[in-house]
């Protein structure tokens, strides 16, 4: 078998066999097939697409290119949630304990953040003592006993994906649906998930700017999952503005606690209920999404979700008293209100730019080596569609430096006030096939 023949076959729009896909993935992983040939194939895939079977084969070839995590020692159906990213996306912090309170096992592998906000692990480290450096045995033991644990990314998972991802970045082939879908799904499957819930973001702050593209990606991933024996569902949700009010690590943990108590922001609560319902149904703890939603609202109301969050923190060395006393988390030295310059209605909040404003304060990393300041960030006082009066605070800055003119300038540039505006629809579509 020759790589040049595989490239030519895809260039001519033909379907690659399972063997051909395995050949190119294995050869690229072990270094026997060079970058330039894989670049050519990636571009051919970009233009000629792949069938559902090819996409499933590509995903599994990438899964098999490295180690996989075996979670079979954990009882029950392990459901994992993946979000295509966003600003102020605190859903993972809420969903873990929330569905675990209904006996759904959540064995979460998370990373650190690069870019405008911290990753899930950075956020959790705002809780004193919390750590993800636990052994695989401890991890499995905690999930069997208490249903929820988070571990740092371990092992050599999907090395083929890492190589192809880096190559796509510099060859103009990032926006290829089969390549994006197989990349995301290979990571989830290698991490041991039995079932997968996907939160595909659309809008200005998202990777998929249009709802049409987001739908295409969601359908592609759901089909891959179902074709390789992992039940998968997806939600298309809005990221044209940040989710919730908090952007910053300790601030987002506090917001997650409020949400678990049923007192969180409307949009974050709604998204958590939609995604959580899918997780509960896939774990076979409820028959319908409606029934699952009622069960989730119940554990928010009766305090079980909050108790589960405390248990989760204590199990991994964290100080669970922060749930009742959030002021024990790192606090910013300066709290500065930003007043609206005119009266009207908030018409636009540019999510990624507001994320960058929080990063300027130290809430995120520009490079892997950067230290994160867990206390700092922004609190939105108004969202799109909310009325605001001139001089009224519409954002609050939490900073550890006195001069925040650069951050204020970024906020004024990226939050627009108009005469009228309508709040965007949060959940666009739910996809199950």
From TrEMBL:
Catalytic activity: thymidine + phosphate = 2-deoxy-alpha-D-ribose 1-phosphate + thymine; 2'-deoxyuridine + phosphate = 2-deoxy-alpha-D-ribose 1-phosphate + uracil; uridine + phosphate = alpha-D-ribose 1-phosphate + uracil
Keywords of this entry: Glycosyltransferase, Metal-binding, Potassium, Transferase
EC number(s) per entry: 2.4.2.2
Pfam family, one: Glycos_transf_3
Group of enzyme by EC: transferase
GO cellular component terms listed in the entry, alphabetical order: cytosol
Assembly, per entry: Homodimer.
Protein's name according to its UniProt entry: Pyrimidine-nucleoside phosphorylase
Lineage: Bacteria, Bacillati, Bacillota, Bacilli, Bacillales
């Amino acid at each position: 078998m020759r790589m040049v023949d595989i490239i030519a076959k895809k260039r001519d729009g033909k379907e690659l066999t399972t063997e051909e896909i395995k050949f190119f993935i294995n050869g690229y992983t072990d270094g026997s097939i060079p970058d330039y040939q894989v670049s050519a194939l990636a571009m051919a895939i970009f233009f000629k697409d792949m069938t559902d079977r090819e996409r499933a084969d590509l995903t599994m070839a990438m899964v098999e290119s490295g180690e996989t995590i075996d979670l079979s020692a954990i009882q029950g159906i392990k459901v994992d949630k993946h979000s295509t990213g966003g600003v102020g996306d605190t859903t993972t912090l809420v969903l873990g304990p929330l569905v675990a309170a209904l006996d759904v096992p959540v064995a979460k592998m998370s990373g650190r953040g690069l870019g405008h906000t911290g990753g899930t692990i950075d956020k959790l480290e705002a809780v004193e003592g919390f750590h993800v450096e636990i052994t695989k045995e401890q991890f499995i033991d905690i999930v069997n006993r208490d249903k929820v644990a988070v571990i740092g990314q371990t092992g050599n998972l999907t090395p083929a994906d890492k190589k192809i991802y880096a190559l796509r970045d510099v060859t103009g082939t990032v926006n290829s649906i089969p390549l994006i879908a197989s990349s995301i799904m290979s990571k989830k499957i290698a991490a041991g998930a039995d079932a997968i819930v996907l939160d595909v973001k659309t809008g200005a702050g998202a990777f998929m700017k249009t709802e049409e593209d987001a739908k295409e990606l969601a359908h592609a991933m759901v089909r891959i999952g179902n074709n390789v024996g992992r039940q998968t569902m997806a939600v298309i949700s809005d990221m044209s503005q940040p989710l919730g009010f908090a952007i910053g690590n300790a601030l987002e943990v506090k917001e997650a606690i409020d949400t678990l108590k049923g007192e969180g922001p409307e949009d974050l609560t709604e998204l958590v209920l939609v995604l959580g319902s899918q997780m509960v149904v896939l774990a076979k703890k409820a028959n319908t999404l409606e029934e699952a939603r009622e069960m989730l609202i119940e554990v928010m109301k009766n305090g079980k979700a909050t108790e589960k969050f405390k248990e989760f923190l204590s199990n991994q060395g964290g100080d669970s008293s922060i749930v009742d006393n959030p002021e024990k988390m790192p606090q910013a030295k300066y709290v500065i209100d930003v007043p609206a310059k005119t009266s009207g209605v908030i018409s636009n909040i540019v999510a990624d730019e507001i994320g960058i404003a929080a990063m300027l304060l130290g809430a995120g990393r520009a490079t892997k080596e950067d230290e994160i300041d867990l206390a700092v960030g922004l609190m939105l006082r108004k969202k799109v569609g909310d009325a605001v009066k001139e001089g009224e605070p519409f954002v609050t800055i939490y900073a550890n430096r006195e001069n925040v003119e650069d951050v204020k300038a970024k906020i004024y540039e990226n939050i627009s006030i108009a005469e009228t505006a309508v709040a965007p629809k949060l959940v666009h579509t739910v996809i199950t096939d």
